[in-house]
Fold these 2 entries.
Entry 1:
Amino acid sequence: MFHHNRLSPALSIKRGLGTTLGAALLVTTTMAANALELTYGSSTSPQHPSIKYGAEPFAQRLSERTNGEVTYKIYTGGTIGSAKELLGNIRDEIVDSAVLVDIYTKADLPLSSLLSQMLILSDDPRVFAAAMNETQLLNCPKCVEERARSNLMAFGFISTGTYHLLCSQPVNSLEALKGKKIRGASRMGTMLQEMGATAVSISTGEMYEAMQRGQVDCIAGSANWLKAYNLSDHVKYIMTTPLGSYFGSDIINIAISRWEELTPDQKAAFIDLAPKTVADVVFAYGEENNAYLDGAAAPQVERMEMDDDFKAELQRQRGKEYGEVLSDAEARGIEGAAELIAAFQASVEKWRGIVAEIGDDKAAYENAMRNEIYSKLQY
């Protein structure tokens, strides 16, 4: 693993020069020269788990670890770019880091988005978040290359809590689903369409207005989106049957052009903080999600379970997902798709075993990722 007991250049100077006025001036000058303020963009609110439990604590820890030499200024609410614009803004050096949702930028990240679009497979967000990080960071050099073309280095993918139907009316059966207008991202929308619903493709930032105007009857998303996106104004029913989760949000990343400005110690600190941040967000997302599912949060919303016909169809859809995604990728000429999907499947099974052993121990989950993934990164 990385070792951080070496002194940073600025701190080494500070400790070696004593207390003379000249030494103090030199320290100040050196630290100012080494200070680096990075910018971070998100289309979500400051209360979204990716910010509240992810970007904000990560930025604070990074500043502490680097003695204030590397800091972040975080812009939320889309002020520095929408979800669809942020990758391009990193490429164009408008922002240094961001919450990146690769299904909005499939043309730029075809291999990366190949995995995250399979959100209906995610029956345990902890498993799929860890498998995504292992596959993306260690087992897919072509994914690293495609990110590099957008001036991007990635170090931390997180998963939402489990997805559910969040509706303005009861939609708790396969029959009731037919004809309903449902916001479903990527292949979640494809599945719902095959089940008889009308899939509506909109970004998370557009969900509130779509429900307000009656353009959608339901949102397929994490239950804590009632808080994160203020959907509690319109959602009256939560279908508690889990549909999957989105495990492709890249929240710890940096423009390559800025990464090259970091010292070796600063780079090591950046990477060393990643597994804790991923674990914190994944577990917090799950805890918030569960509070909405069990009624502790938003008790005025009615909870309903999907019927057996729906559950059987959901399992049938999951059973053919890997094959359909591979066929679609090959039809679109995406090179390396078969190898990537095979590597991801193997990683999912590996992490099923790890998570089954450690259960709900967040520290053990963090340590497992540190040992299995982050200790092996080359930078």
Entry 2:
Amino acid sequence: MKALYAEFTARLDAESQVAALMRDLSEAVRAEPGCVTFEPFVRDDNPLHWVIFEVYRDLEAFEAHIGSEHGRVFNKALAGLIEGQGSELTWLREPSL
């Protein structure tokens, strides 16, 4: 499995636009054959700060996700609505227990 979380902060004047984009993206990503989990959250202490927890079946499923048309459309629209240069990705792995 490939797991990660993505983070970004919406501009104050773009909060509702970002929420609408995320709603549409979530539906599309969850329909991807290799998507295991796609769950967006906002931080309790800062509702403009988004954290999206994502799990894909494998690397190929993740690569299909990042190459999707709906992902390209989302990222292009999001670029002007957030602070900074884009989403920050943090990769996760299962621990050896």
